[in-house]
Amino acid sequence: MNINSESIVHDLTQIRQKKPLIHNVTNYVTMEWVANGLLSLGASPVMAHAPEEVADIVKISGALVMNIGTLSAPWVSSMKLALQAAKDYGVPVVLDPVGAGATPYRTQVARDLLSQGGVSVVRGNPSEICALAGGSPTTRGVETSLLPSEACASASKLHQEFGCVVVASGPDDLILGPERAMRVYNGTAMMARVTGMGCLVSAVIAAFCAVQKDPTLAAAHAMAYCGIVGERAAVNIQGPGSYAVTYVDLLSELKEDWISKLLTVESHVSLS
Amino acid sequence: MNINSESIVHDLTQIRQKKPLIHNVTNYVTMEWVANGLLSLGASPVMAHAPEEVADIVKISGALVMNIGTLSAPWVSSMKLALQAAKDYGVPVVLDPVGAGATPYRTQVARDLLSQGGVSVVRGNPSEICALAGGSPTTRGVETSLLPSEACASASKLHQEFGCVVVASGPDDLILGPERAMRVYNGTAMMARVTGMGCLVSAVIAAFCAVQKDPTLAAAHAMAYCGIVGERAAVNIQGPGSYAVTYVDLLSELKEDWISKLLTVESHVSLS
Amino acid sequence: MNINSESIVHDLTQIRQKKPLIHNVTNYVTMEWVANGLLSLGASPVMAHAPEEVADIVKISGALVMNIGTLSAPWVSSMKLALQAAKDYGVPVVLDPVGAGATPYRTQVARDLLSQGGVSVVRGNPSEICALAGGSPTTRGVETSLLPSEACASASKLHQEFGCVVVASGPDDLILGPERAMRVYNGTAMMARVTGMGCLVSAVIAAFCAVQKDPTLAAAHAMAYCGIVGERAAVNIQGPGSYAVTYVDLLSELKEDWISKLLTVESHVSLS
């Protein structure tokens, strides 16, 4: 199935009607931002990490997000419990390997989670994707100067090793699923000026996964929609503070005409 | 005593003059939002949870808020220490049982805190109130589709069992205290589009409790004021992002004419 | 070397070109705000606290910030590990002793960190500085009514005891370094209406320390720039919510003419 404005609007409408519970075991820095973004999108965010309850929350959720932005041992244990529950109950899972490559601990934790199985989509910047695939540890915190096109080989390797959809996001986004790859060109440089934009995008992928059974298509829809909102929000820029506010405002609108006008994707990309 | 615009303005003025310290042992998601809301209101927020210091903070505080939004065992221990200190020093306490009913763990922790004694006001959505009172566990995360009027019996049961004021908030708010019940009709649907609006309202109840000895009246004042600010903030809606910013802006203003114009309450509600 | 608009602009330009990684072991409340502020300034924020990785992050960072706003024993351990790594690798360190004096625990932890050595700059409000220097514990949470001028003796004592630059900030800011003291008069009362403004200022000092070897000058540059941005942001005030958004917006601009027009400092203050 191709990605087009109708398929995006279909999934968005489903999110707004079903208001799927999105369970986030995530970092401290961007929890509120991600919760507000998901709520504005039409989903129902829950942040919970206690080992006593993560499985109970996963059971009633439409999708699970694991984000290692401020990881520590107790949180990693909770992620593993939540991931196990997601496998047991058939709940789709998105992994955001924030800072993989920056420290051996992060790289190892992210790979451990992938090895456990059950991750539907992993989304990172190209450096993080390369680090996860065993490439050189060039990540400098959460920044990257690599382009998604430079992460193609690593994305393929990760996909083959763990079977999940791999998204390398940046100026353009590479989405690599089983037997296909897509590229999304929407977005704008301003998005990188807001802390946690990547975290939010990963959570939006989870919201799309809650209503769209094909995780490759769900990921592409999310990347395209987030990019389109980002372009629209940049129309009258005052600075990164008001850009973030406007971004949340616009997530709540469903303007089909924006999507059909701005959508720029390749549904079938050859990686060879 | 009835609730009216003069009684609200009186308490608001006291908050702004005394700047009571409000101690929050609360969730990670909405800490900053709640701190900014309290600060804009005129109170002095403190967030602290270390067992080494919670009692010391309670001792110098005008009120304590306990919010179980992202609870875990160490934080629950700290809440119990803080609650004990509040009892010892006569500091009013507000409990926000976020997500009670969504998992057995949350319901149990919230009931344990209530059982310990010393809670002045518990504020939740109708699902949470019903779950705490032993009703069917219908809570779906922090959302609810029950109306406050459907939580009357549960609110009465909770009030009788634990002796605290019970607030079931929603499109309208039920405030149930000793020998009386009030209803507040202020507020707007937009408030539910912002993560942590309920958390902030609970913290505002605490701020009113710091200056108003009658916790029923303090809760009603807080619900009315938060609802009135919510209505005013909705006048020029761009979306949930800018609505949240405007909400914090308006909390800092004390416009007596808004309050007298918009206040819509019933000071004596019959629950039978 | 004197502080003037050219020296500030020089350092700002360096920050924007080098985008130094600023490692924050900080409080839960203001993490997102500080991250967005640093990002808007041009630096690269990282928040990380796991003992498994703090040293690895410090090693690749331009500066470290330790902020005890929501301290607890595990975080204090991580701060000590991070501080040791900063000493080992020669990374400048800023300590924000939030709430020192409010509880014995906070005062003790802040002094323990100072005693460990390696802190380049400590920035607090006058109450916190006095509490750290062993003065009367008058701090009431994170507020203060003392003026920086009333903290001169305490600042001198702290500087002599621990060898670090001491900043007492308030309506005006005292910056006390080796053999010199400066005073910055920029800023506005509105800054105190936003939660975490002090936390952000401390992080901005760290960003300046990452590009400016003289920590006294780095601290003065940061205090002046943050104050100037604060004055500019206050031009059209709607309230504290939109003020915070505008503050982040303006941090990203480098308007040399504002700086030269608004800068008000004394480069050589006599403390006797």
Describe the structure.
- Three copies of one chain form a homotrimer.
- With 272 residues, chain A is α/β, with parallel strands linked by helices.
- Chain A has one domain (5-259): 3-Layer(aba) Sandwich (UDP-N-acetylmuramoyl-L-alanine:D-glutamate ligase).
- Chain A is 48% helix and 14% strand.
- Chain A has eleven helices and nine strands.
- In chain A, strands 2-1-3-4-5-6-7-8-9 form a nine-stranded mixed beta sheet, sandwiched between helices.
- In chain A, helix 5 (104-116) links the parallel strand 4 and strand 5.
- In chain A, helix 2 (31-41) crosses helix 8 (197-209) and helix 6 (126-132) crosses helix 7 (152-162).
- The longest helix of chain A has 19 residues, at 215-233.
- The first copy, chain A, is globular and about 45 Å long.
- The A-B interface holds A 19, 21, 28, 31-32, 35-36, 39-40, 44-50, 52-53, 56-57, 60, 74, 244-253 and B 27-30, 32-33, 69-73, 99, 102-106, 140-143, 193-196, 238-242, 244-245.
What is the spatial order of strands in the main beta sheet of chain A? 2-1-3-4-5-6-7-8-9
Which pair has the most extensive contact?
A-B, 32 and 32 residues
Tell me the helix content of chain A: 40-55%
Kindly provide the radius of gyration of chain A, computed on alpha-carbon positions and rounded to a whole number of angstroms.
17 Å
Total discrete domains of chain A:
1
Give the name of the CATH superfamily of chain A.
Answer: Ribokinase
Q: What is the SS-derived class of chain A?
A: alpha/beta
- What is the beta-strand fraction of chain A? 5-15%
The SSE string of chain A, one letter per element, is: HEHEHEHEHEHHEEEHHHHE
Oligomeric state of this protein: homotrimer
Shape of chain A: globular
| Terminal residue distance of chain A | 21 Å
Main sheet properties of chain A? 9 strands, mixed
Second CATH tier, the architecture of chain A: 3-Layer(aba) Sandwich
- The CATH topology of chain A is UDP-N-acetylmuramoyl-L-alanine:D-glutamate ligase
